Amino acid sequence: MSREPPGAAEEEAPGAAAGAAAAAAAAGGGGGEGEGEGRARGGAEGGGCYLALCARPVHFEKANPVNCVFFDEANKQVFAVRSGGATGVVVKGLEDRNPISFRMEDKGEVKCIKFSLGNKILAVQRTLKSVVLPEKRSLKLLKNQSINVNWYMYCPESSVILLSTTVLGNVLQPFYFKSGTMSKLSKFEIELPAAPKSSKLSLSERDIAMATIYGQLYVLYLRHHSRTSNSTGAEVVLYHLPREGSCKKTHILKLNRTGKFALNVVDNLVVVHHQDTETSVIFDIKLKGEFDGSTTIHHFVLPPRSIQPYQIPVAGPASVTSQAPVPCKLYSSSWIVFQPDIIISASEGYLWSLQVKLEPVVNLLLDKGKLMDFLLQRKECKMVILSVCSQMLSEPERGSLSVIATVFDKLNHEYKKYLEAEQSYTMVVETGLSRSNPLLKRPVRTQAVIDQSDMYTHVLSVFTEKKEAPHKFTIAVLMEYIRSLNQFQIAVQHYLYELVIKTLVQHNLFYMLHQFLQYHVLSDSKPLACLLLSLESIYPPAHQLSLDMLKRLSTANDEIVEVLLSKHQVLAALRFIRGIGGHDSISARKFLDAAKQAEDEMLFYTIFRFFEQRNQRLRGNPSFTPGEHCEEHVTFFKQVFGEQALMKPTTF
């Protein structure tokens, strides 16, 4: 199992000029072996396996004297070149729905072939020091650097080439490509395990990888022996390579074993494969480690596990394909590993991308706080996180309130970060500053943003409906989530408060409901006030609690009036509206309707007289205008109290 193809078609001689290396790098990366076309499927679930090969790999025919196979690291494509291209070239990639097929003239052995990004330009290399672009038939020299090079490595994701220089090979010189220009970055030295005994190349290309982790470019050095005498086993040293400034050693990943290793980076995790034990481990540099003042030492997050078993279907006629699939030989010596996540099996003719499975991690990482820290950094984490939240609220995995609080706080920390970023973006856009900053982008809502709707729908409402837990625990969990939201100054949505109230009512905990409202544990809202009104039949004080809440809201004056009128408390509604100075604009008909429905003649008389007096004060006449539609109430008043009881116009 190696990081580069065994017996690759092209080798770079020590001391060769970097110009050829730069040209090859600009075209897209190193060569590889493999061929053909087909399809594989995953086999049985591997118990506790948190790594898996993708279900739809690229299948290719093994290399033979007629057929040469190359791998392009930039486009992640396999090239099958038959008879130097004369009888056909087939190009296939993991993301390509249809293979690309074409023919070209046979002008000798092809040492390297690849497309530019977007498959627009084809580059072919037939000699050690020349590259041909068949379409343009020319190659323009943009810039040249004279430097002795032992070997080079190119990272297509970051457009950075790394050149190994000096006799020992441990001084690395990076260059950055952008828009046809080549910028020289600060060179740096890789610390070798010990002082070399002879002046010969001590740093091999096999022990170096480049990858982007959490948006930053790192150089990964596989050091087979630790520099400290009291430490056994190999380690991976991470050097942070910024565009500006010097490259610094920042992380050390302890492997605690020796042997043959290979590196991948998947979902911002450093994956280290160990061929001897046929297992892999993962490291997350975002998780807390041991800081010694300059570097952070990390241990693998989970116990070593094999990649999930993989089954290869038998190819051939229908009678043959009905046979049982053949297990794939994992960690084979013919495996070739490319960054960030590519594994090629030269012996079986497959190209896979490596994937992380989050579900098995839940049972392997028992510390819920650390588990959340890990999951929140993964791309496809939302449903797994919600599942973990549900599990920790239910038997047999029910957690303590302190653990539950820790999980809620970690979720809401991410939630708050997103809300603040969204708010900042909105402010910049509204103030027009975005026009002066064209690079400004709206914050991306990742799966790590678990909002109140997610928690309510998938966790809390389901949890309360099951009614498995003691009601005190149920209420404590709901209040803990609300506490966490308040701690991060996130406005609590009314449906969470409603869930609390319904749970309290289900268990007849009215005294607790009263306390929560009295001490404003549950924030005021119109929906909440309406919910309290609906509870009046089973808890009479809920009516007054609702009214008090509406008064506190101040913007809910219309709702308060409607509530009082619906309860035939017409005088109370009138007093309230007079108290806030709105009695000159209210509808007389609405109040007279309510007074009539109350079937209290004196109440109707009082309300009728109030509006007569209002009419006199505002218009100089107590009569109602046709637009007020109070004719039926005037008729009713005459029937009950006589026409002489109507108020006469007052003249001054």
TrEMBL record:
Stretches for region Disordered: 1-40
Transmembrane regions: none
UniProt biased composition (Low complexity): 1-26
GO cellular component terms attached to this protein's record: late endosome membrane; lysosomal membrane; Mon1-Ccz1 complex
Signal peptide: none
Domain Regulator of MON1-CCZ1 complex N-terminal residues, every copy: 69-133
Domain (Mic1): residue spans on this chain: 378-626
GO biological process, one term: regulation of autophagy
Listed name of the protein: Regulator of MON1-CCZ1
Organism annotation: Malurus cyaneus samueli
